[in-house]
Amino acid sequence: MKHPKWQKGRSKGMATRGTELCFGSFGLKSLGTRWITSAQIEAARRVITRTLKKKGKLWIRIFPQKPITFKGVETPMGGGKGTVSHYVFPTKPGRIIFELDGVEEELAEEAFRKASDKLPLKTKFVKKEIRH
Question: Helix, strand or coil for residue 57?
């Protein structure tokens, strides 16, 4: 039997997938391990699009597909698993969360700074390196 402390699983280590910029010139990279809810992703997306004022192109590189269940308060033991309350994306350090292209670096940095305030983890602004 699993110990209750480990029931929800533990995210350890660095991200191995989604660590490089693929679509845009600028990105927002995760520096921590956290569950990001669909509401937090949507709040960050809204603040980015508002800051850009319909300029540029935005890619969301994560999708919340892990269901989180919840049993009601004062529900007796038994009766199976609780209903799905929301969905999350378990993030590891190094994962690219958002990408941007078609805007100036200062505007992209400001948009990502505002978006990182909406997320539950520390993030870093990254830009694509130009190779000669």
Answer: strand
- Residues 87-104 pLDDT 10s: 999 999 999 999 999 999
Instruction: Tell me the C-alpha to C-alpha distance, in Å, between residue 27 and each of 19, 30, 38, 73, 132.
Output: 10, 10, 19, 41, 21
Q: How many domains does the chain have?
A: 1
Domain CATH number, residue 92? 3.90.1170.10
**In angstroms, rounded to a whole number, what is the distance separating the alpha carbons of residues 16 and 55?**
31
Closest by CA position to 90, among listed 22, 2, 18: 18
**Enclosing domain of residue 59:** 23-68+81-127
Q: With respect to residue 4, please indicate whether it lies within any of the assigned structural domains.
A: no
Q: What is the pTM of this model?
A: 0.87
